[in-house]
Every structure is written in C-alpha cells, then in structure tokens.
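Researcher: Here's my situation. A collaborator sent me these components and asked whether they could plausibly form a single complex. I don't have experimental data yet, so a predicted model of the whole assembly would be a useful starting point for our discussion.
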Amino acid sequence: MSRMEIRLAGSGGQGVILASVILAEAAVIAGKYTAQSQSYGPEARGGACKAETLISDAPIGFTKVRHPDFLMALTQKSLDKYGKDVPERCLVLMDDSLTAIPELDPEKTVRYPILKTAAEKVGRIQTANVVAVGCINSLLHLADHESIRKAVLMHVPAGTEEINLKALEAGIELVNKAEHA
Amino acid sequence: MGKIVLMQGNEACVEGAIAAGMRFYAGYPITPSTEIAERSALRLPQVGGKFIQMEDEIGSIACAIGASVAGVKAMTATSGPGFSLKQENLGYACLAEIPLVVVDVQRQGPSTGMATSPSQGDVMMARWGTHGDHPMITLSPSSVKECYDLVIRAFNLSEKYRTPVIFLMDEIVGHLREGMEITPEDEIEIVNRPTVLYPDPKRKPYQMKKGQLVPKMAPFGKGQRYNITGLIHDESGFPTNSNAEAEKLLHRLMHKISDNYEDIVQTEEVGMEDAEVAIFCYGGTMRAAMSAMEEARAKGIKCGIFRPVTIWPFPEKELRKAAGKLKKIIVAEHNYGQLLLEVQRVAGSMCEIEFVGKYNGSVITPEEILEKAVNSK
C-alpha cells in the first residue's frame, strides 16, 4: 500500500469523526504518514458529517480525499451523496439497513449490519463507530490486531474501554464470518 | 528522532505555546478555534499555569494583556467574528508595547459566515484591523508540526519586540490531524522579554538606552509603579499631546519592526531553483499547492512554491528576488484576493500574475491550481 484515501460518512453524532481519528492513530502506530480531517455543519447532532483519513508511505501534500479508495456510509443520505461518483477501484462499505444505489458496482460493495450489531450484540448504539473500525481494519488490513486495539483505547472516553473493545471485536467478526462463510 | 504523535493543529498550537512558556490563556470558545481553549484548559493547570474562560472576546484579550503586564506569557485564540472584536485591544497592546500572542483560526465570513468552513479572509485584517498606524507581526503555519514550532517563534518575537504577534491559522490546519514529531526541549530556543525587577525611582518605564531594542519591562506588582495607557505617551508612560513625542513614539514603534525585517521575515521556497511558474500561497493552502506542484512537474512544467511563513511584514524582498526569474506567479488563497494585492504591488511589473481564490467555504484543490499552471505553457 503506497497511498490510501478513506472517506467515512454519516450523520453528526454517529462518531464517524472519531472512527477516522482512530484509523489515523492506527496509521501512526504502523509508522505511516497520515492526514485526518472532517467537514460538518454547525449542528452537534443530525447534520451531514464526513470524515477523511489519508494514509501514505510518503509525506502528504493535499490533505483531503480526491479519489477515494474506500467509502463507508452509515446513512442513506450520505450513501446517495458520496456513493454516486466513486472511482471504479473504490471499495464501498454500507450499513445493511441502507438501500444500494444503481451507481455502485456490486462487486466492489460490501454490506454489514454495523448499526444493528452495535445496538443488539454490543448493546449500545453509540459504539457503532468502533464496530465500523473493526470492519474497516479487517477489510483494509491497515494495522495489526494489537495496534488497532491500542488506537481504540487511546481515543474512547474513560470508562468505556471494555464496551468499545467488545465493539471492535464484533466488527472484526462481521468481516471474518462473512469471509469464511 | 523524537516520538511521533497524532495531533490536531489546534492542539499542537497549545503544546507549542506551552513549550514557549505560555502560562496564561484567556478565551471565549469559537469554532474553529475551540480546541485551543479546551486543550489550554486541560494543560495549563498541569504546568502551573492558569486558564480562564471570559465573558466575551473583548474580555479575553483584555485579560491576556493584563496577565502579560504582570510578567506571564499569555495567549488568546479566536476566529473571524471574535478577531473583529479584539481589534481595539490589539491596538492598545501595540501602543503600550505588551507582548501577547493572538491566534486567529480563520473561518468563512464576513460576519458569522460559515462557522465550520475554511477561509483566509482575515489576512488584511491581521495587518490593518486595528485603527491607526501600528507595527504588526503575523505568522501563518501550514502543517500540524508547524503549528507547534511556529507558535514558539510567535512568542519569541512577541517577547523580543514587546509587541502582539498574530498567529494566523485557518480551519484547514486548525482541524487537521497529522503525525508529528515533538521537537526535543533542548532544540527549542526561548526568548524572554527584557525586564526590570528592582524598582529604581529615577528610571522612566519607557526609557531606553542606546542600542536597546525595546524598553525593559517591569512586571506589575514586582517592580516600579507606572502608568500604562492607550494614549500617546512619553517615556514616563503618562499621556502627552506633544506632536514631537507622538512622532518619536510612532517612529520608534514602526522602526522596531521594519529595521529588523531580516530577523522577523521567513519564507519557504520549494522547487524554486529552476521554476518558471510559482505558486504563491500560505497556511493550509500550501497543501494543495504541494500536490499541484508535484503534478505540474510530472507534466514537465517547471513549477515551484513561494510561501510566506511571515505574512506581515510582507516578504517583499524575497518575493521580488524570486519574481525576477519567473514567467508567472499563481496566487492561491481562500479569499477574494487579499495578499494578491501585495503580490501585484511587488511583482506585478515583473511577471504575469494569475489568481485562484475560494471564498465559498470549500477548499482550493490541486486541480484548480494545476489548471492555471498548465495553461501557461
């Protein structure tokens, strides 16, 4: 991997920024260059939110995603907006509660029950972003297991370490189970 | 090599400020600078400093000025709307010669504009926002690492020249997270203001000996009693209506900066050795320029970057020297054309000047710069 452009999109409050920060942290632990940024509206909850992480073996100039290699969408609105003009090689991860749009290549699209897993299996919907981190890392192999755990622990609020690690494992399992099925 | 940590530009600004010796922060949170207040609130008590959230923007800069007068290195941070409100006290600090770092993380404007969107629309306000002729030093970082290192320089210049320094960030670098190497303590140069700690009844507070850069400063509460005013004052610190004293003071204030241009002005040049086209940019726009330059070079265009690290005083000597070898300068900035005016003034007769401006809250892309570079062939 020489350069990877990752875009995460959802709704304000879903934690997509934190998820992209955790991926950037994992990249730093792995000794890579990274640039993480976000764009959101003035509202704290409910507005459209986009977070981006660039990971590279070389120093990074422009810090925003231009040609995404990976897109995750947690809301229909964000899938509709960002899914329609992804490059051919881009892998798209969508929550399985969403409806695929015709522009997506089924071969390059994966769907997992991220929100449902957080709410039902982990037991807390707020952990959906860390479930997503688990999925993404298993799909993209950004960092080894120990590093991604460390990155999660560096950024989740004190007192939520255990449930977030449970969320991470649940996310990893979603991909592993699918790949071995 | 030091440890690499993932840090946000705003956070790095606070860490650099603390490394420079900041021990007081007063602020009123405003997007996109809020993380500077948040991290200062967390970190200052850990190093024996003080953080206070004030009732408004005006109170914040007034409070920071007060702390500095008492001998403590102080900072406040804001964004455009708050920067407007701080202008009056900024002029006060210029005239009363009070060291201070004011951070402005620019956002789209005018007025409250778009709170979370990037801009570089405060560049001219940084220079001329407060009324009257006054000296001004403004520095602008283009990476997280530079937020750390350059804010240290902002403090040093502020202390050395007893003047407020504007640390002009933008949303692009303020909210950017990157891996950054913490500069080892023994590699950091710290400058402290010249002080007078023992009261001397014969000494006038603004008196200067020959060869001295600025008057020595007596921290309030420790040394002599003296008057500080925003009125034109003589060496005693008391107001005067003397035209001769006004001229002398203004002359000294302007010249303490202009006479030390070489010490204050810093620029970065990338790929300028053989460049025929140069991208002129500063702050977060540098990042788009870096990619544009790389892509232009891949197309065989001899492209370079000229970046003022010090924006004010404007690096006109360096720009004039660079422009002599160029066919074209592409000015890229997130406004309607502000430093463009300076580039036109300095280099307008020497080469072609093109402009890439964004003022709608979105970010200038490498493609937009590249297009201007390609069309020059």
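Model: Some features of this prediction you could bring to your collaborator: The longest helix of chain A spans residues 161-180. The domain at 3-180 of chain A is CATH 3.40.920.10 (Pyruvate-ferredoxin Oxidoreductase; domain 3).
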